């Protein structure tokens, strides 16, 4: 029986130019799960206030991180697929689909049309409607017309899965020496998204653990990921913190904001800061440019000495093994693959 694994990430423009970024943002921000407003108001904001201005600014940011191979997000994601496919062999078919942009989910689902069992793995550790929910919804829409439906396994989130925690911890650990503090910077979401998901407090205070909050609370899942990473790394509560980045527009997003936390850390005497971004499994615009460049500049302007961006799990060998564990695939003999040690 042919088994398929569909890896889904958010997406990236085709090129770091204004036209390509505009096409990407048009598709991305038109999603009702991303901007959760009535359709008329959503399109008014998109076409009147965002698309005329933001694509040019974002294109400059993409140009700063673009490589000879292309978008870092796409490069890391494709490398991950190649290494997983090599490890699993002919019994499995591993395909990448981007929720927005290319390679599209439409093409990815077509490639998996002969699979009798399909595992859908959105590559977002914590569940958010705007990312995970949208990816799952769109995939199921594309599968719906099939005469013969595959059996499905859907991985909703893996924010506390030991395979992810251990892989991310292994990457973070070498960076701890020589730094005063570790900041976990997660992608933010509008507070309204939490309210829509049933978190009525809208997280005015820190969520100590997702065990005590609705399982759909993205912010609580982020705190749980941070706690588990800190425990694995042997950090005390004084040695790490949590913040949220990438807010868009003037509506309230979940706090604390990363750019507001940096001056607070300087005031506390932190000089050498390390930042990990465990809501991303592949380095991308939000990690490389927003943290690695802009936050770096802010940190130095505040009087900080060094700010080190810790890489995401990307196509790290331990993460490749971790995906098998998350998907419930039996362990593969490591001697059969050059990618897993």
TrEMBL record:
Record keywords, A-Z: Cytoplasm, Heme biosynthesis, Iron, Lyase, Metal-binding, Porphyrin biosynthesis
Enzyme's top EC category: lyase
Functional pathway: Porphyrin-containing compound metabolism; protoheme biosynthesis; protoheme from protoporphyrin-IX: step 1/1
Domain of life, per lineage: Bacteria
One of the protein's GO biological processes: heme biosynthetic process
Residue sites binding Fe(2+) per the record: 187, 286
Catalytic activity: Fe-coproporphyrin III + 2 H(+) = coproporphyrin III + Fe(2+); heme b + 2 H(+) = protoporphyrin IX + Fe(2+)
Localization per record: Cytoplasm
Key word Lyase present: yes
Chief site of localization: cytoplasm
Any one Gene Ontology molecular-function term assigned to this protein's record: ferrochelatase activity
InterPro entries: Ferrochelatase (IPR001015), Ferrochelatase_C (IPR033644), Ferrochelatase_N (IPR033659)
Enzyme Commission (EC) number: 4.98.1.1
One GO cellular component term noted in the UniProt record for this chain: cytoplasm
UniProt xrefs under PANTHER family: FERROCHELATASE, FERROCHELATASE, MITOCHONDRIAL
Stored HAMAP family: Ferrochelatase
Family, as annotated: Belongs to the ferrochelatase family.
Designated name of the protein: Ferrochelatase
Species the sequence originates in: Legionella spiritensis
């Amino acid at each position: 029986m042919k088994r398929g694994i569909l890896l889904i990430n958010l997406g990236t423009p085709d090129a770091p130019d204004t036209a390509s970024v505009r096409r990407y943002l048009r598709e991305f921000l038109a999603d009702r799960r991303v901007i959760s407003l009535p359709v008329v108001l959503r399109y008014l904001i998109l076409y009147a206030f965002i698309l005329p201005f933001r694509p040019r600014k974002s294109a400059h940011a993409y140009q700063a991180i673009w490589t000879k191979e292309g978008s870092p997000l796409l490069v890391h994601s494709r490398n991950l697929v190649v290494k997983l496919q090599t490890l699993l062999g002919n019994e499995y078919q591993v395909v990448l689909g981007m929720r927005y942009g290319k390679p599209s989910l439409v093409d990815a689902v077509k490639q998996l049309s002969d699979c009798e069992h399909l595992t859908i793995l959105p590559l977002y550790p914590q569940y958010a409607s705007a990312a995970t929910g949208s990816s799952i919804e769109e995939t199921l829409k594309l599968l719906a017309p099939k005469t013969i439906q595959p059996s499905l396994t859907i991985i909703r989130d893996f924010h506390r899965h030991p395979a992810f925690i251990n892989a991310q911890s292994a990457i973070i650990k070498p960076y701890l020496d020589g730094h005063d503090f570790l900041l976990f910077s997660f992608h933010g979401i509008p507070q309204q998204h939490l309210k829509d998901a049933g978190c009525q407090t809208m997280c005015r205070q820190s969520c100590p653990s997702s065990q005590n909050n609705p399982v759909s609370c993205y912010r609580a899942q982020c705190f749980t990921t941070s706690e588990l990473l800190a425990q694995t790394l042997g950090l005390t509560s004084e040695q790490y913190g949590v913040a949220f980045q990438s807010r868009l527009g003037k509506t309230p997003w979940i706090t604390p904001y990363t750019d507001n936390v940096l001056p607070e850390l300087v005031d506390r005497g932190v000089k050498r800061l390390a930042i990990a971004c465990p809501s991303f499994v592949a380095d991308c615009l939000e990690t490389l440019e927003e943290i690695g460049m802009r936050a770096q500049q802010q940190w130095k302007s505040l009087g900080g000495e060094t700010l080190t961006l810790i890489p995401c799990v990307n196509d790290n060998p331990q993460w490749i093994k971790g995906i098998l564990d998350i998907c419930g695939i039996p362990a593969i003999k490591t001697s059969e693959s050059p990618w897993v040690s």
